[in-house]
Specification:
The protein is α+β, with helices and mostly antiparallel strands and 237 residues long. The chain is built from six helices and nine strands; from the N terminus they run ββββαβββααααββα. The strands form two sheets. Strands 1, 2, 3, 4, 5, 6 and 7 form a seven-stranded mixed sheet that branches. Strands 8-9 form a two-stranded antiparallel sheet. It is elongated. The model has no long low-confidence stretch (mean pLDDT 89).
Length: 237
């Protein structure tokens, strides 16, 4: 039995939730898009260390400023044609990530809209579509109950920019006044950044930074999709 780590790396690009994919440079599934990842280097390598190493080696992204957490373990007997391979997947999130550079075992690396993967429009190697689906759902759920949304933002951000995070990850538009009221009701979620303001074409907007609170109470509940939206989603599947 062999052990690997796989990375679901999420960021926002032009207002869309995107996931990082690499083009496999070797068999199996040579030439197909897949999640960055690889085998542990040796028996003594810690799994989290391996995740940080793969993040750097396969994408040239620095791990120090990326939110990284363990997602789940995938060990179905037929998930890898090379034999019994168990993957410990990790979810990584950071704001404004640059264009990736392929490393070691990858021929190319690029950002892909997450919806293209979730809908099956882009076919991935192994069981990586399932892993991406689980990673995006983890992010969507944690946005309700935790301060994870701030991991998609820079050090300073406006409430409008924070709202765009929720809209991109949840895949739905939100009422601006209602969102502002709910965010302000969660004490310690975000805090004003002094007197700083950012001009974005209208009135200067106040800047905020992530606050000390990591659990949101009350939570920012995800809107329930309308029947029409659910029907459209089912038709796409």
């Amino acid at each position: 039995m062999l052990l690997t780590v796989d990375l679901v790396i999420l960021t926002l690009r032009e207002g869309r939730l995107c996931v990082l994919l690499v083009e496999r440079g070797e068999d199996p599934f040579r030439g197909m898009p897949a999640l960055p990842g690889g085998f542990l280097n040796h028996a003594g390598e810690e799994i989290l260390d391996a995740a940080h190493r793969e993040l750097s080696e396969e994408t040239s992204l620095a791990a120090g400023w990326v939110h990284l957490e363990q997602l789940a373990t995938y060990g179905d007997a037929g998930r890898d044609p090379r034999g019994r391979v168990v993957s410990v997947a990790h979810l990584a999130i950071a704001p404004g990530l640059p264009e990736p550079v392929a490393g070691t075992d990858a021929m190319d690396a690029a950002w892909m809209p997450a919806e293209a993967v979730l809908s099956g429009q882009v076919e991935l190697a192994f069981d990586h579509r399932r892993i991406v689906t689980d990673g995006v759902e983890r992010a969507r759920t944690k946005l309700e109950f935790s301060a994870l949304a701030t991991a998609f933002c820079g050090e300073l951000f406006t409430i409008a920019e924070l709202q765009k995070v929720y809209e991109a990850v949840w895949g739905t538009e939100l009422d601006t006044r209602n969102f502002y009221r709910k965010v302000q009701a969660v004490k310690g979620f975000i805090v004003p950044a002094g007197s700083g303001r950012r001009t974005t074409g209208g009135r200067p907007a106040r800047l905020y930074r992530a606050g000390p609170k990591t659990v949101l109470s009350p939570p920012l509940t995800r809107p329930v999709p309308s029947t029409a939206e659910e029907d459209t989603r089912e038709e796409g599947e």
